[in-house]
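Internal QA ticket QA-208
Title: Verify multi-chain structure generation after dependency bump
Assignee: T.L.

Test input:
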Amino acid sequence: MSKTILCRCEDITLQEVEQAVESGFSDIESIKRYLGVGTGFCQSKGCLVELARVFIEKGKAEPADMRPIVSRPPIIPISLRFFAGHDPREEGGQS
Amino acid sequence: MEQITDLRIYAHHSLNFSRGEQVTIHFEGKKLKAFANETLAAALYASGIRVMSRSMKYHRPRGLFCLSGKCASCRMRVNGVPGVRTCRTWCEDGMVVLREKTLGNASSDLLFASDFIFRDRLDYHHLLPRPALLNRLLLYGVRHMAGMGALPDEAAPSPPIRDINSDVAVIGAGPAGCEAALAASEAGCSVILVEEDRSVGGHLGSWPEKIREGGSSGIELAAEYDERLNASKIIALKGTTAFAYYPEGFLALADERGIIRLKAKKYVLAVGGYDRNLMVPGNDLPNVFSSRALLKLVNRFGIRPGSQAFLVGTSDRNLSLALSLSEIGIRIVGISEDGPTVRGSEQFADEIQSRGIPIFFFHKPISAIGRSKLKGFVIGPSDGGRERVRIECDVVAVDLPSAPAWELAAQMGCEINFSRQAGGFAVKAGESGRTTNTVVFAVGEMLGSASSDELMEQGRLVGAAAAAGLQI
Amino acid sequence: MKARIVIIGGGIIGLSLAYFLGKRGITDVIVLEKSHLNAGATARCGGGIRQQWTSAANIEITKESVEHFRKFSLETGFNIWFRQDGYLFLAYDESQAGMMVESVKLQNGFGVPTRLLSPREVKRLAPELNPSSIQCGAYNPTDGTIFPMAVVWGYMSACKAMGIQIMPHTPCECIDTKNGAVYRVRTPTETIESGAVVNAAGSWSPSIAEMVGVKLPNYPEKHEIIVTEPVNAFLGPNLVPMDSGMFVSQTIRGEVLACVGMVKGPASEINATFAYIQKISGLLISLMPRLADVRVLRHWAGYYDITPDTNPIVGPVPGVEGFIQHHGYMGHGFMFAPAVSRRLADYIAGAPMDSVLASWSYDRFEKGLLASESMIIG
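Actual output:
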């Protein structure tokens, strides 16, 4: 069991992230796109802080300069049918 | 398939587990005993199931880790719907549950071979780009191995969207959130309190020891909050998750009946943090838990997790966990501590010592051992020395400062910064929890770890601040 | 610094051009990207690659691009997961069916093997489809889906290997001209002398053109898109129901990806809205009812770079020598990029302008607009 799992959802290891940071990816958004970290079911809840820590520990970023990934809705997966339900506001503009 | 058993504690000398009505769950062809006040995850774990799912690339066995719907390790096909978070799903009689996407049974998935074949990593970008035929085979193979499960069995109907408004909306019913809601309500505001779990009080509900203030235990305090909320005019939406803030100007919530659009004049976010895991080899093995999760499993659901436990860190939480585990006959093989002294309070530290639980000072975690089952844990000197202590254990609990929840605040336009003190990316909050969005307040562990007393105090302050200017 | 050619924009358009220039032996090229790679439209798109168009030029271009993508992984050693399982357009009424019949003929004329399908054949190809009201389908098995970001990384590594410089986090602040010709580009930290500047900045192209006093008619239009949790592979072809113009695809990872146009006109923000997700969810469920309990995982938006006649703007601008346009791709730049870039690279290297590209010239807006493409989707 030699793998250290950093991103549980996408099975990305600590070593992969460290290598990517060392090879020049300069920010979290780029690594997220290249490795897929933070794009799985939990949408970075389990891995964002660890990602940031690798940058900081490798001296590639100052904590004050770090930005999180862009947060998009929904923050947990929501069934399509929930969004497709009848909308009372669409009739007569009740609010 | 694992041996079915029943690891529930039926006679605890101080805790009552109100499990509710007994029900039957159909799990992969077997009938399992379960209870209405258990989540599916707890019921499966109590029955001896340890492998909840298999990981995406390497098909590594995954067990429960956070028990709060965040780590995505407990997802299974429930009543014909794939990817259901079993730790957020309550047992109902006749539920049909199974694990998907394995070659062979989930407990002995043949595709686990990819964990061996790709010892270090599987780099999809450069895997077999040539020759063309192999690349095409790879495409075919990857496509058919991908996905968490088959399409849902049925075409379920779409439930209507509901709308709800209030003066103040509080998201999260931990101690900070409950206090904020009560304070705002006492100040004369209409209040809606949103909580993902079925009960209020957050992690207090798994804390059997006395909290300093008032002398009640965490569990008693949680029950008190429930009573006080019921007696108030606060509308408490339990089993409801806030999942987005849309630019149309509302917070979107979801419960099992669908979506609720929540519009408030002021919002108080008390959404806490996400459990973090150690970054060591083997960290994703089943039975490596976050301490909060293990406390819940043991003290709220009354389930015995193993026979020999090792804890990483001497925080109050871990010391309390050690005591809770000892209560039910689990041997605490040891607790490791980075530094020279116990971090938790004296009261706990003395109790631990008197039970002869070994503490390994100046030791840090090195790795978890096991192929599919946790067999042991290795620690080493904090100063980086090469000596290793190998500890035989079948449960490990990790207590790291949680990663603050920040996403809703970000979607609401609040400034987010990386804060060492808060333990990660956190919403910037000033006096009385004010964020850079004047209608949004933040309180509680989403701003950094704090004691229960501090959380309650903060909650009162922020609730009052949110209510200021709104009451009649 | 000096470079023979400066390309402004490191998306699929700019990078594919750099690649083809390199292949032609022109490696003294600098690509300026204002953000990190894969920040703009390229990474936000649905990854669909089709040859089913209603204009001859579009069919010819995309057919060439498809050939290029087929060999991409072999040539660059980078996987782009180009899955050719087709696009299936669905007609729900007479007029849609009529347009379909015409365009299929046109496509066949170019050797694109689109064929008309009966409702029964449609259902066989996409079993999850709700078959009601479908009159007929148009299916081209050589269309498909790709992983857009991988193409960018593939081009990037191929360009770097050829010695082409790619500079992310480097915005173009100023383009200087002298006697009606460009001669210098300025970034916050560098000055680059160059006599040829390519404007491949997608939605930001108009602001780049303004730097040399050129007015472009393009504007950015917001398009939202959602992706679900990954499910087992169930959908072969990409689907385009013509009544809504929605685009639905299943990615290599199993996610169902869907987009449909909603708000027309110039936009200045790309936030994900509730109104959109209501619309797309309803459309998806009525198209494939068993998707009801599949969950939305992510929802984002990007810009379509819109031109008045739906055709791109490619080539030189009269009055500003050395300032070359390569934008206006209306949300389908990805599948146009390789073919247009190859031909544009040839032109930059000294060959006469290709006739398709010549029809997409900047000066057509004075001379007279072209016929619009009818099958704009997503």
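Spot checks passed. Chain B touches chain C through 39 residues (CB under 8 Å).
Status: verified.
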